[in-house]
Amino acid sequence: VQSLDQRGDRMHIECEIPARGLIGLRSHMLTATSGEAVMYHCFHKYAPVRTTLYRRANGVLIATAPGQATTYAMLNISQRGVLFVEPQEVIYGGQIVGENSRDNDLEVNVVKGKAFSNVREANKEATTVLKASREITLESALEYIQDDELVEITPDNIRIRKTELSESKRKQIARKNK
Length: 178
Prior knowledge:
By secondary structure, the chain is an alpha+beta fold.
């Protein structure tokens, strides 16, 4: 921080931040100030990397199978963390479908359907309501990813995926890196 000036009911802050530190800063500032922050930035100089940036503390929920996400599967998975996908959305293996509430990555099946039988149930099935999924924007996706993850951008979707889509190959790589 180079200067802090009170200007009426506003605070003017000047600081030097590396360009890689700007990714995600705008959304955090807007959230912290209820949308009141105004940001301006310009290039100052090239400099060597001095510190590491913040890394997320939680793991991710990784889809194991391709298909359409089902409400039945997502209801059970939503207890393990925050989801990034909606029911009926097309999913592929290796796609990140949510954030785990713990610090490890977890393989989940979001396309699992409910098993049906010809036996009628005494109770009608209760209506299930899922919590709203977290919307992924380009900036939030770039801020969110780790070294072993990629952002996939198509005209219709912004998705986050693991670099290696195969579950077995991801496990082999993890064993080598230990």
